[in-house]
């Protein structure tokens, strides 16, 4: 088999963009990956580089090298059309003159993950800083003589306990989310009596709802099919959704937990008459640490991770998650699971 045929096949199947330029900065060859990454109306071959890629840094680097003003760098990083590429420049000199090979590796996903990690560290630091500052401030006041007043002592200890509890919940949620995202928390599917999960969870929230003056009800039919799922993880989903519904529903409101068979699935709804969510925020509410009302959420003890946990658990069950909400009209969080 001819060597050129082999090289052509390799370039064609590479998941790295390959562009060959002549000394006048015109394209001699582009492999399919490159052509798909930088589409132009007609063939890439014969076009100048600036007709294909608009990144100023890459254009300046290539033109400076071909003009003999600078040496070719080992690699540069560029962004184009919302994507990121690591570009290696490899010059080839032969009797026909100078040829420049560009290898473009798509690093968009790596950049996205890097951004997520940076945001995650920043968010965690911010979430921990507030309760830590409060704990430190109140404890220093007590150590400086505040313990002499029993009423002050009791109140300050109550505040310290509240912030410590918030930190504990945050750490628990972080560990849970980390295990779910890294698939270290195994989801074991088995027939689950979803009616029992819903009713037992509702019972656990009756005092919280009563203390806030909220009516909590359930509408679950007899003969509801079992679902294929992980009992403990599904209970966690219902706990998070009910907890949010009660937190964001004003006194005098109501929360309803319902379920119904829907074809081959079972659909569970958690409906409240709470403050609601603006339409612009709904696409982002399942992101880590995203809050519609940051101050109110922290005041109510929210970690900003509950809905992210819900999303990952439902995804792990191959289920569907849906939200309907409007400011002042309450919210309905729904998820569907495969019936047994």
Topology:
Blueprint: H1 3-13, E1 17-21, E2 27-30, H2 32-37, H3 56-66, E3 75-80, E4 83-94, E5 97-106, H4 108-143, H5 150-181, E6 190-192, H6 194-211, E7 215-219, E8 227-229, H7 231-247, E9 254-262, E10 265-272, H8 294-299, H9 306-316, E11 320-325, E12 331-338
Parallel strand pairs: 7-9
Antiparallel strand pairs: 1-2, 1-5, 3-4, 4-5, 6-8, 9-10, 10-12, 11-12
Helix pairs in contact: 4-5, 5-9, 6-7, 7-9
Could you please describe the fold and organization of this structure?
Strand 3 and strand 4 form a beta hairpin. The chain is elongated. 44% of the residues lie in helices and 23% in strands. The protein has 3 domains: 104 residues, Beta-Lactamase (2-Layer Sandwich), CATH 3.30.450.20; 75 residues, Signal transduction histidine kinase, dimerisation/phosphotransfer (DHp) domain (Helix Hairpins, Orthogonal Bundle), CATH 1.10.287.130; 153 residues, 2-Layer Sandwich (Heat Shock Protein 90), CATH 3.30.565. It has 340 residues and is an alpha+beta fold. The two termini are 56 Å apart. Helix 5 runs parallel beside helix 9, helix 6 runs parallel beside helix 7 and helix 7 runs antiparallel to helix 9. The strands form 3 sheets. The chain has a 5-stranded antiparallel beta sheet, with helices on both faces. Strands 7-9-10-12-11 form a 5-stranded mixed beta sheet, covered by helices on one side.
Distance between the termini: 56 Å
Report the β-strand fraction as a percent range.
15-25%
Question: How many DSSP helices?
Answer: 9
Q: Strand order within the widest sheet?
A: 2-1-5-4-3
CATH architecture of the largest domain: 2-Layer Sandwich
Q: What is the CATH domain class of the largest domain?
A: Alpha Beta
Mean pLDDT level: 88
- Give a short account of the largest sheet: 5 strands, antiparallel
Which percent bin holds the helix content? 40-55%
Identify the CATH homologous superfamily of the largest domain: Histidine kinase-like ATPase, C-terminal domain
The number of domains is 3
- The low-confidence parts are none
C-alpha geometry: elongated
Order of helices and strands: HEEHHEEEHHEHEEHEEHHEE
Structural class: alpha+beta
Number of strands: 12
Query: Which fold name corresponds to the CATH topology of the largest domain?
Result: Heat Shock Protein 90
Oligomer: single chain
Radius of gyration from CA coordinates? 29 Å
